[in-house]
Amino acid sequence: MIGFWEVAFLIILIVLILVVPSKLPQIMRDLGKAIREFRAAMKETEKATEDVKKSLSESLKEEEK
Predict the structure, then answer these.
(1) CB neighbours (10 Å) of residue 39?
(2) Model-level pTM?
(3) Do 38 and 30 touch, CB atoms closer than 8 A?
(4) Rg of the chain in Å (alpha carbons)
(5) What is the pLDDT of residue 5?
(6) Phi, psi (5° rounding) for residue 6?
(7) Which of 8, 31, 35, 56 is the most buried (most CB within 10 A)?
(8) Closest by alpha carbon to 35, among 16, 7, 11, 9?
(9) How is the chain split into domains, by residue range?
(10) Which parts of the chain sit beneath pLDDT 50?
(11) At a CB cut-off of 8 Å and minimum separation 6, what does 32 contact?
(12) What pLDDT does residue 65 have?
């Protein structure tokens, strides 16, 4: 089943191909770069969250003693 984001992506892609074919490679490079940066930021956020959880659980264990 095709979801909303897949359809939206296809529509945007078709519009870009029809409107600005000369700038399409640069736009796609920028889009790929943005996606990579977003994923890196998500991983960093997940790591920071795990670190906070770990330190909180260690603090709670120390308080129980």
Answers:
(1) 10
(2) 0.57
(3) no
(4) 21
(5) 85
(6) -65, -45
(7) 31
(8) 9
(9) 23-65
(10) none
(11) none
(12) 66
For tokens 């260690």, what's the residue? 58
Q: With contact defined as beta carbons under 8 Å apart, do 53 and 46 qualify? A: no
Counted residue by residue, the chain has a size of 65
Q: What one-character-per-residue DSSP string does the chain give?
A: ---HHHHHHHHHHHHHHHH-TTTHHHHHHHHHHHHHHHHHHHHHHHHHHHHHHHHHHHHHHHHH-
Task: Answer whether 37's CB lies under 8 Å from 48's CB.
Answer: no
Helical pair 4-19 and 24-64, crossing angle rounded to 10 deg: 150
Termini Cα distance of the chain: 53
